[in-house]
Amino acid sequence: MKIIMGLGNPGKDYEETRHNAGFEMVDYLAKKFSLKFKFDKKFQAEYVKAEIIQNGVPEDICLIKPMTFMNNSGMALRSFLEYFYEEILDEDEGNHLIIAHDDLDLELGQFKLQKGKGPKIHNGLSSIYQHLGHKNFWHLRLGVDSRGGERNISPSDYVLMKMNSAEKDKLQNVIAEVVGLLFE
User: Fold this and answer.
1) pLDDT, tens digit (0-9, with 9 covering 90-100), for 64-74
2) Distance between CA 152 and CA 175 in Å, rounded?
């Protein structure tokens, strides 16, 4: 079983921004496996649960996109897990949960999959830590920094800027690489 939450902000204004790298990840997976998200008001999230077949082996997958905006992602995750997968709330059961998110500590095109370790500062993750009460889950850190040492734009403004086509391609390539590692 894999429960993958992609972090991002809902709405057209935030599409194709660096901060929505997590949404890009779960959207990629939904497309790859021909899955369709549905919105549920009680979770304030879009989600899809399905069984997929990988190399002849069935596997349960759940994809989640919180619609609470980044800084309140933990509220959506907590209510979703309480309803469907209460056991995942236990700190010792975090092996099934993957949170995909943007990471300014990594260059665009890089990623890290680490258990219990995220970037120095990330408000979406802070909300999740607060609402789960632990960090013991997989952090899929998708690098979004393409500033090349130029730091004249604040990090909070930079992650909300739209990516150019070369940057979008680079992010899609790394997402495809990650999906290959996770599912093939």
Assistant:
1) 999 999 999 99
2) 28
